[in-house]
Amino acid sequence: MYGMLLESVQYFVQQEYGDEIWQKALVMAECKYAVFNTHQVYPDHIMSNIASALAKLTSKSYDSFMNFFGHCFVRFFSNYGYDATIKATGRNFTDFLESVDNIHSQFRLSYPKMKSPSMYLTKVDRNGCILVYRSKRMGFTHYLMGQLDQIATEIYNLELECQVLSTETGEVDGKTIVIVTLRLNFDNTHYILAKQVKEEAHLRTISKLPPFNCDLLLVLFPFAILFDPAMSIVAIGEKLTQVAEGGHKLLGQPVSKYFRLRRPKGINFTWKNCFYLRSVMFEIEVLRTEFTKVHTDNKELLVEKVENLSDSIEVDGKNISPYASRRDSQPGVKNILLKGQMLYLTDVIGIIFLCCPVVNDIGELPDQGLYLNDMNPHGLAKELVLAGWQNNSKLELMFDKAEQRASELETNLSLLEVWKKRGDDLLYSMIPKPVAEKLRAGNSPLSTCQTFDSVSVMFCELVGFNSSTVEDAMELVSTMNAVFSCFDSLMDTFNLYKVETVGQIYMSVCGAPEETPLHARNVCDASLCMTRHVKQLQIPSGTKVDVRIGVHSGPVVAGVVGIKVPRYCFFGDTVNTASRMQSTSSPGMVHISDSTKKLLPKDKYIIRNRGVVKLKGKGDMETYWIFEDDLTDGID
């Protein structure tokens, strides 16, 4: 579906439910798009997923939200002036319902990838009508009902009540479609009265005129096709007879053998559809290859081959439809596209397709084996062909440029999403996501400053090597990259925030900016895991690397500092004490303070009293070594 449908949903959901609900719905619907482009095509399931997500976030049902989305679309497309098209279709709501397929056909020029449904009326009375809705999309019945209700209310000032009579599935061109029969109840008195007045005036007029033979229609419309309820050809226009090189051979043959339905899309070429869609413009393709099979000089041989080929022919080892040659550019072979309207003739109990060929410019006439004098004697068919010849090259150039720009826009939008994600990842690597969102909202950096009553701070230092030469320095950088990359992967696992690395020292915090009562336990688990992973790392140079870690818990103040390369920093005596705990630790050991020890569960770790240690600037403090519980064997 096109982005305009999803734009309408986003606009009115944010307006009526708030941006917070909308953002939650996008997350629950697993929608990767933050914004929608009007002319970009998106997967159909996005709207359904959003409706399901909103139903879970609120007390309403999925169907009610799909109905709401239908209302939203009608309210939204008025901004583009599309409501004027609906108003121009007819004086009454029923006139609009009979013209929906024509409206969709016109909008295909602006939205060529549109997958529009098909609708027709089977019964019309003073209290409403019965509408048959056919679509390739499943689950959009209530979306249609919302659209119809909004159009009836907003444009025609009617109260509409929709009732689903039946729902079934069918198949068109190998694809499954849903067929829904709806009863629409509304005041249809004006339409019925207008129809009665028109019929009475028509009867008064024809009563003064003599009847004429239906052959006259085949002269006025030289490409017309008359067929009966069995879908067999009864008669064809004189020009179509010339194209077929003898129309008598077509009489009594199935219409679908020589003609193929192009539009309306999504329906089968049946009597029922032709009868109920009489108010809709049809496009039918003349299959020239079938005429060629009948009138070739070597007729008997070709017919024999056609019978053996059944429904396909082989070209370069591939089976293709015999209709694939319809684009053949050889003169007089290209298929003819006919466009017109179905008319039911009660006298002969048949339907006649009143049409004319679709020719874009004079250059297409030889390809189709046609001439200007073959065009309908009435109307502007000849003038349009000549005008199209002059303007077609300019239109083609404009269309190519529009297609190129649309393709570039889609590419740029995809790149925008990629670079936005990269930018977010880079930002969140420097500043925690909750803090970054505050700054994005326009808050001052000072507003990010916050006091945390209890967090755990960990300092880890790499030991066991020095860098007295350039080669040693390069080896140190390579080793630090390997070790610190390993530590980075552990931060999310244990819910720690990496603050910074200075030289050979790695600093992380738990309990800020996301507060948790398990901060001491998380830091100790991460510290013990870091000591274990360092011993397992395989350094290319074979250097033995170890770490010494210090942990302390207490209050801190945190906030964003700096303009260039801003960082989320921590301040306070807790940070200083944790640094001193690390500097007085030993290689391969985790050194914790008494305040951290008090926050740990008693039976999860092995904690050994180290005794009183003198810390610079702090004096004497009682500290501890901490070990994993599975290391009890071998500890005295």
TrEMBL record:
<dbReference type="GO" id="GO:0005525">
    <property type="term" value="F:GTP binding"/>
</dbReference>
<dbReference type="GO" id="GO:0020037">
    <property type="term" value="F:heme binding"/>
</dbReference>
<dbReference type="GO" id="GO:0070482">
    <property type="term" value="P:response to oxygen levels"/>
</dbReference>
<dbReference type="GO" id="GO:0019934">
    <property type="term" value="P:cGMP-mediated signaling"/>
</dbReference>
<dbReference type="InterPro" id="IPR001054">
    <property type="entry name" value="A/G_cyclase"/>
</dbReference>
<dbReference type="Pfam" id="PF07700">
    <property type="entry name" value="HNOB"/>
</dbReference>
<dbReference type="Pfam" id="PF07701">
    <property type="entry name" value="HNOBA"/>
</dbReference>
<dbReference type="InterPro" id="IPR011645">
    <property type="entry name" value="HNOB_dom_associated"/>
</dbReference>
<keyword id="KW-0547">Nucleotide-binding</keyword>
<dbReference type="Pfam" id="PF00211">
    <property type="entry name" value="Guanylate_cyc"/>
</dbReference>
<dbReference type="InterPro" id="IPR024096">
    <property type="entry name" value="NO_sig/Golgi_transp_ligand-bd"/>
</dbReference>
<keyword id="KW-0141">cGMP biosynthesis</keyword>
<feature type="domain" description="Guanylate cyclase">
    <location>
        <begin position="456"/>
        <end position="582"/>
    </location>
</feature>
<keyword id="KW-0456">Lyase</keyword>
<dbReference type="InterPro" id="IPR029787">
    <property type="entry name" value="Nucleotide_cyclase"/>
</dbReference>
<dbReference type="InterPro" id="IPR038158">
    <property type="entry name" value="H-NOX_domain_sf"/>
</dbReference>
<keyword id="KW-0342">GTP-binding</keyword>
<protein>
    <recommendedName>
        <fullName>guanylate cyclase</fullName>
        <ecNumber>4.6.1.2</ecNumber>
    </recommendedName>
</protein>
<dbReference type="GO" id="GO:0004383">
    <property type="term" value="F:guanylate cyclase activity"/>
</dbReference>
<keyword id="KW-0963">Cytoplasm</keyword>
<dbReference type="InterPro" id="IPR042463">
    <property type="entry name" value="HNOB_dom_associated_sf"/>
</dbReference>
<dbReference type="GO" id="GO:0008074">
    <property type="term" value="C:guanylate cyclase complex, soluble"/>
</dbReference>
<dbReference type="InterPro" id="IPR011644">
    <property type="entry name" value="Heme_NO-bd"/>
</dbReference>
